[in-house]
Amino acid sequence: MREADAAVRREPALSDLDDTTLAVRRLISAAHDLTIRTAHRTGMNVSDMTAVMQLSEHGPMGVAELARRLGVSSPAVSVLVDRLERAGHVQRVRDTVDRRRVRITDTPAGRAATTDAWLPAIREIDQVGRSLSDAEHVAARELLDRLTAAMLREDHAPGA
């Protein structure tokens, strides 16, 4: 048993977790560590990298929406966007429907910087996926889809 798994299992409420659950926990932790390393390679902090990733994945959004996705206040996001805009990673654009609204969008330079930083890890993960048998592909995709759905449920937050 891994040291981190043993530490988790010492917590009474978590002592009976399945080995697969612990493996997923390790994967989530590794993903977080990868985000930190990738952000540092681009010269960004983790919040900035996460913001650019959110914009790349979900498209342009207002400051309030980006703040909600990052779990921080709108004033904090305004400072973050100022920093990313100066670096050329994002830009503020007027909403085409409601010209009073300003939306934040990633720039080609921002996308290129994050893609270049993530590409080595993405390629290695892709190689692992390509090494699976057809049956393993199906099982892995089904498991990952179910885990993703579980993680996206809104009612996991304290007090929900």
Number of helical elements = 7
Biggest sheet descriptor: 2 strands, antiparallel
Strand content range: 5-15%
Classified by CATH, the class is: Mainly Alpha
**What is the spatial order of strands in the main beta sheet?**
1-2
What is the global morphology?
A: globular
For the secondary structure, the number of strands is: 2
How would you characterize the overall build of this protein?
The protein has 160 residues and is mostly helical. It has a single domain, classed as Winged helix-like DNA-binding domain superfamily/Winged helix DNA-binding domain (Arc Repressor Mutant, subunit A). The protein is 67% helix and 6% strand. It has helices at residues 3-9, 19-42, 46-58, 63-70, 74-86, 108-130, 134-152, and strands at 90-94, 102-106. Strands 1-2 form a two-stranded antiparallel sheet. Strand 1 and strand 2 (102-106) form a beta hairpin. The protein is globular. The chain starts with a helix and ends in an 8-residue tail after the last helix. The mean pLDDT is 90.
List its salient traits:
160 residues, mainly alpha, Arc Repressor Mutant, subunit A, two-stranded antiparallel ribbon, 7 helices
Summarize the structure.
With 160 residues, the protein is mainly alpha-helical. The chain contains seven helices and two strands; from the N terminus they run H-H-H-H-H-E-E-H-H.
SSE layout and pairings?
Elements: H1 3-9, H2 19-42, H3 46-58, H4 63-70, H5 74-86, E1 90-94, E2 102-106, H6 108-130, H7 134-152
Antiparallel strand pairs: 1-2
